[in-house]
Design goal:
Layout: H1 5-15, H2 22-35, H3 89-105, E1 110-115, E2 118-123, H4 128-135, H5 145-157, E3 160-161, H6 162-169, H7 174-182, E4 186-191, E5 199-203, H8 205-211, H9 227-238, H10 245-248
Antiparallel strand pairs: 1-2, 3-5, 4-5
Helix pairs in contact: 1-3, 5-7
Length: 271
């Protein structure tokens, strides 16, 4: 049987302790060819020659203590034919897509997901309760609307300070920010080059898994929370302009408007 990438990936997914990355897979293929290059077999155990019991004068040998130099177990060659020297990223992604479609076609309890650090097999959400019962874990706590709004501002604006978050949202962000820090969805990036050196926040890898994306580039575009729009909004908020006639509800079509700074000139009745 020729090399079957899909079956190999299924085994790797099952045996992996964490997400399976492109680098992990390509490294395994490289190791296969290194080992197939004809490395000499090494003796297992002691390198001292063992006397045979048939030799005259030889002391009896305890079979339990005797360790012979034997080759490693020969693995079935069926799955090691025609292994390519290089498995490309495109081939790996294509194989993973095929595995995912197969699982969906049979309505499997296991689904294949791709995260920021690779692929992994996870249980279907509809069976999440059984997993929690097995592990004796409490149900997940949902984020409040306040926390979700704060997380959205951080995701699109990062790195961002608490003052900027509160200025954008118009309310205190302390409670929502503490909850996000507690759940490891955001972290302290550093300090801003501003008076007082305020702390800046950004999103973590756990945030990517929480929203189901591989990188921040996959966040949906937002005109409201884009850096350019926020910069313009903050600049306007920090430098308010004087209210004009339109802002005061006055009719701008009138040629003359009474000024609040100058008293109206008294008109002399015609004689």
């Amino acid at each position: 049987m020729a090399f079957d990438l899909k079956r190999v990936l299924k085994v790797m997914l099952f045996a992996s302790n964490g997400p399976l990355s492109l680098k992990d897979i390509q490294t395994a293929v490289s190791r296969f060819h290194e080992q197939a290059a004809g490395l000499p077999l090494e003796e297992v155990g002691s390198t001292e020659p063992i006397a045979s019991a048939a030799e005259p004068g030889a002391a009896p040998v305890d079979p339990v203590d005797a360790v012979e130099a034997v080759p490693a177990p020969v693995e079935d060659d069926e799955f090691y034919h025609d292994v390519p020297t290089l498995v490309t990223a495109a081939q790996i992604r294509e194989a993973f897509d095929a595995i995912s479609l197969e699982l969906q076609a049979v309505d499997s309890e296991i689904v294949l997901v791709e995260g920021h650090s690779g692929w992994r097999l996870v249980t279907h959400p509809r069976f999440a309760r059984w997993v929690r019962l097995l592990r004796n874990e409490p149900p997940p706590v949902r984020l409040s609307p306040s926390s979700l709004e704060t997380m959205a501002v951080i995701a699109y604006r990062q790195p961002v300070t608490r003052a900027e978050i509160e200025q954008i949202r118009g309310v205190s962000a302390e409670a929502g920010l503490n909850k996000l820090l507690e759940r490891d969805l955001v972290y302290v990036v550093g300090r801003a080059d501003l008076p007082g050196r305020p702390i800046q926040y950004g999103t973590t890898d756990a945030f990517l898994e929480f929203v189901g994306i591989k990188s921040l580039d996959e966040l949906p575009s937002s005109d409201v929370l884009s850096p350019r729009q926020i910069d313009a909004w903050l600049q306007t908020a920090n430098m308010p302009k004087a209210a004009g006639d339109a802002d005061m509800g006055l009719d701008e079509t009138e040629e003359k408007q009474m000024s609040l700074e100058q008293p109206a000139a008294s008109e002399t009745p015609a004689s």
